[in-house]
Fold each of these.
Amino acid sequence: MASRQKAMKFYGSKEGYDADVMIESKAMLSKDDFVATGVLTYALGDIIEVELPEYDNFALGDKCKMTVYTRSGLFVIETTVVAKEQGSLIVLNPPENRRKFTEKREFPRVDVKNEGLLFGLQDKNKRNKHQFDDPIRFSIKNISVNGLGFTINENAMLEKVIQKHSQLEVELILGFLVPCTMEIVRQEKTNEGYYYGASFISIPEEKTNALRGFILKNQIETYFVQKRENETKKALEKKSAANQ
């Protein structure tokens, strides 16, 4: 029984290994005739972080082979360096590698401060369609490859017409425009108005890569900010403990 539980911890569901099995594993990065060894410290969605002393020998855009030595076996990944900071590199986690692992959230959701425009909607039965003479502006709070969370300032009319499973025609303003349709999957009243969770139904094919790049950029920036905050907090706690 104990051995079976241990195996389940490493392998996760039938779909693959638990993604956490890679964390704190030894990772070797190689390019051309240079090899460096570090520790894999983060893996979520499209990105993996490896902390290694020789990080500065790698440049953004470098193609690398990464070998990860986990408790569940050895994994070899063809990847690309997409970001770097003191002591660490962020590399891409390619789809073929992601398929080997299961994650708590299929697509990472990142917090953002962008806006969008609502042009029209139809109810869950697809019988009644509403088009707005003036597009309604909304605030995007978070976004992932498969959906987003947004708020609309209190609006009695929208409260009645936007319901779960309503389909919305919108345009996302992300530094570039993404026209798309999405379906409401969650709705709640908040201090800021009404919060909605929506899943994408359709996005123009030519906008898909731009959207993925936007999410990746924000995921990396958010991760580095949180990491620096955690390191500062730990340093202050250590200093405080030393002074007691």
Amino acid sequence: MNSEMISIHETATTVSEALETRHSIRDFLPKPIPEEILQRVFGKALRSPSWKNSQPWKVHIVNGTKREELAKDLVQAARQSPPRPETNWPESYPSDAKKRMFDLGMKIYGVAGIERKDKEARDQFMLRNFEFFGAPTAVFITSKFELNYFVGIDLGCFLQSILLLAREEGLGTCPQAALGAFPDVVKNALQLPNEEKVILGLSIGYPKPDSDLNRFHTPRESAEELIRFY
């Protein structure tokens, strides 16, 4: 697996370029995203495929004062209690996946200048999830569907569409399971009905171009390792 440092603050002109250069951004400029760009990204993403065209998603885009209040409430919840998501987070992984996950964590902490043994710094870094890493816009994806494998596939297709369309516009994103960690806080802030489950969220905005944390390009296994032709 190889990783590299690349800049992704420019727009992507092809699907291939968006896919090859996209990675999670964890350091954003405070620059607001024009509403017409958000309308374009999320409107186009609605063309994503789903089981029998069921479209099991709803999208909540949070800016301005509401975003600031929600960030404060989420950080407070994270300081006071463990996550309480409405979906079951994975608890076990194959050994090769565990190695990839551990290696990624160490590399990200390294780029962020955090020592492995510095638990306080790691905890502070984790809390930045709930501050949306400084992004001007927070997005929450919810569903009233009974959650199952195929609904998960549909939501994954929808999320990938958002990530690539945002990349086309020169925006950075960070998809975050962590934003589904405290659904009661989100539902209260956005006045959502109880049956609407908060699945996950993402931070979206303009990447800081001079941030090493943003330029870290996550490694992937080789095609030879994961793809077979018959």
